[in-house]
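User: Before I run my own analysis I want an independent prediction to cross-check against. Here's the chain; please return only the structure tokens and, at the end, one sentence I can use as a sanity check.
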Amino acid sequence: MTTAKVLRVPMVPLREAVVFPRTMVPFVVGRRSSLKALERTLEGSRKIFLACQRDPGVDDPQPEEIHSVGTVATVVQSLKVASGNVRMLVEGEFRARAVEIVRAPDGHLVAEVLALSEKGDSGPEVEELCRTVSRLFESYVKHNPALPAEAVLSTLKVSQPSRLADTIAAHLAVSAEIRQDLLERHLVRERLERLVRVLEMEIERLQLDQTVDSRVKEQLEQAQREYYLSEKIKAIQKELGRAGRDDEFEQLRLRIEGVRSPGRGAGEGTGGAPAAGGDGPGLGRGDREPYLARLVACRALENAQPREARSAPGPPDSRPGSSRPGAGQGANSRAPGGEPARIEASPEHDLVFCGSPRGGEDIPGSLHRRGHRP
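Assistant: Structure tokens:
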């Protein structure tokens, strides 16, 4: 537009919305002052000035709380609903700057506006910017499923640079501040350059969102798969009659840990040498811990045996200097034939302890199921 004519039209401030020229925009009017402005518009030329207010939380903004640059639009359709609000469909005509905003006696706002001319819409640089913007917008639509594909078809058919920029800007899901900045750039080349930066930023954000969503989806699928397999294994074990075997082993482990914990540090020596009354010949700290665990397990299994099975005394401990009473009845007592003794639990236990065949010493052995051959 090149005219410098000042127009006096009713005005409606918008909350977080920007109307661009040559675009169709629906919105709802509900404030008393805005309804009055719409009435005056429908009674006259159907022209109305639409501008975004600076703070969307203000119900009745003052003239200084509204952006001065907006769009003069034509009311295409209006429909009053049961709540008293009015649904409007407007078509943007041209950019305009409010020279003065006053309040009419009935409370609605009236603006005296001056149309802003659009310059710099031709030249090879502008044409290259148009091709870049069209390509970026096509990529933006592919990454944004909320935007219909027909928006690309209708937009890419636009050949006029100014109209192309406004149409693309109207389809972007960006903040009101960015849209207002695009509206205020009446130089076409500057508007296209700004639009390129905005599109690149939005495409990068959409790609990042898709990457994060894909990772979250994979993690959820993995968790669901693991849960499904775990439940299936439990069902199979239940059918085979083994549902409680794992719980039995876990209870036995907890009992062994409970017996070992109170006296874990007793009788430990330093430098790998056995302390007085120690539990193993020449065992360091790292060797004594598994040894103690196995020895305690053996003691627990011995105590679980019937008294008759462990009443016969075993041979004396062959370790020099041992003064522990009943040492021959320890975890690795040796039978008269020199073979390692096997200590079996009572029928309710399914574990046996096998000692080492070296010299009758109490050194680490191992727990096995019944029927194991050393």
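Sanity check: The first helix runs from residue 32 to 43.
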